[in-house]
Amino acid sequence: MSIAPRPPIPSLIPESAPFTPEQRTWLNGLFAGMISLEESVTPLSNEQAAKLLPDLLDRGAPAEADDGAPWHDPAMPLSDRMKLADGKPLPRRMMAAMAQQDCSQCGYNCKDYADALFTKKEERLNLCVPGGKDTARMLKNLYAELGQAPPAAKADAAPAPAAAQSAPGRSRDNPVYATFLSRRRLNKPGSQKETWHIEFDLAECGLDYVVGDSFGIYPANDATLVEAVLSALEAPPDFPIGGRTLREALTDGVSLSPAPDMLFQLISYLTGGDRRQKAKALAAGEDPDGDAATLDVLAALQKFPGIRPDPEAFIESLDALQPRVYSISSSLKCNRGRVALTVDAVRYEVEKRTRLGVASTFLAGRVSPGDKIRVYVQKAQHFALPADPKVPIIMIGPGTGVAPFRAFLQERMATKAPGRNWLYFGHQRSNYDFFYEDELVAMRSAGLLTRLTLAWSRDAEEKTYVQHRMREVGRDLWSWLADGAHVYICGDATRMAKDVERTLVDVIAEHGARTPAEAASFLAEMKKQDRYQTDVY
After folding, report:
1. SS3 152
2. N or C: which end of the chain has fewer CB within 10 A?
3. Domain 223-316 has CATH 1.20.990.10
4. What residues form DSSP beta bridges with 235?
5. How do the domains of the chain map onto residue ranges?
6. What is the pLDDT of residues 281-293, one digit of tens each?
7. Topology of the domain covering 393-536
8. Do residues 408 and 419 lie in contact, with contact meaning Cβ atoms separated by under 8 Å?
9. Per-residue pLDDT at 17
10. Does domain 176-213+323-378 match CATH 2.40.30.10?
11. Residues 490 and 468 sit within 8 Å (Cβ to Cβ)
12. What pLDDT, in 10s, does the model give residues 414-434?
């Protein structure tokens, strides 16, 4: 007696429904049994599925096992991150597409931003500032799996509903106005760098913060650059754009670097022949002339001279000007009603034109004392002093990475925390680039700063970085770790932070009598216990 094979379970749940393959198989079987299907079936729509099982559809992103997010590494190229995430649920692949810094410039951490996109609580695909165009392009491709991708955020776009509910000054979508107080150059004459100590008055807006938090700034574009763009457009500066003038929109409404894909798409409509093909290639992320990485908005207009886009269509093709987020370098307990930042002014040459970091040079020169600036406080997610003030801390922050550690030391001083404090600081030259030298030396003399280890990369023929100093005092460093010290790293994500982490593993292995694998496990356990925290960019 033969038994006829069981017919396959029909597919009722649409592929676009937010379920894992296992959930979809189970639900297909459930619904097939519930409605006694025989031969012909019609797949359920998302709306029909929601009526039958609304609680599952309302759960948002599908549950997933804790895979440790192996792609969550800011030093890893995007292509490598996407390979590691291949085959994972869509929210995880969206997460892998991001810059993986958890810098909070988008208003989320990377995982929460991915989940918000997946559930469509957030529709802006271009919020990942460090990820730039590559991340935005990848997110657009991934978002298409949920349906038609939304347009990129515009300067006058309404904030996401979830973000709009935040208290004033507590998110990028609900900033307040703070008064710019002062700037002070931290490098001495002769330095090859330009770094500023910046202060804002928070008394009027009433914002507060805790050490470890970051401060968001809404900058304005350089006026000279705005005038150059207006000249290239040959458009009247007072052309009306959504209740504002064209000049105003270019000043603080849209980003002028880098040139977005939509601008090249617009240009392709306004030209022909080889120029149209080049514009289309640039819009698709290609690099026909090898200069795509250097094209800001002005350079794009100059590359295709003679086009005369409608000003409103031109503004629509540009990305919204994003805020910039800086580590706070002060404690309210020592600076009542004020906040301080430590900012490198970014200037560099491309094709005989000086390009400017929009926010850094805004703070370094274009804003004046007394000016009101839109700001907000970005709460730290995993970057805070130990709850127990007796716990020792090790802070590694070369360059502007010293910012949050100045705040930590001020906080420990104000609260009379008994825990030991060890700071690693480095820069190019000791005579010119020793930020906050007087303060740190005074803290060292007073005993607040138990150890101050310095590294100067240009004082000798052989470059010395903070990781070299860590190896030199590896035995003492291990002693602090064995005594329960928390380690904090702030600064460059792609090189310094990775070098410091590798060095720390080596120190643990050598002085902690462990194999390399055991040392890596020791550091991984420190991360789980929040004893190893980073603020990288």
Report:
1. coil
2. N
3. yes
4. none
5. 78-164, 176-213+323-378, 223-316, 393-536
6. 999 999 999 999 9
7. Rossmann fold (3.40.50)
8. no
9. 54
10. yes
11. no
12. 999 999 999 999 999 999 999
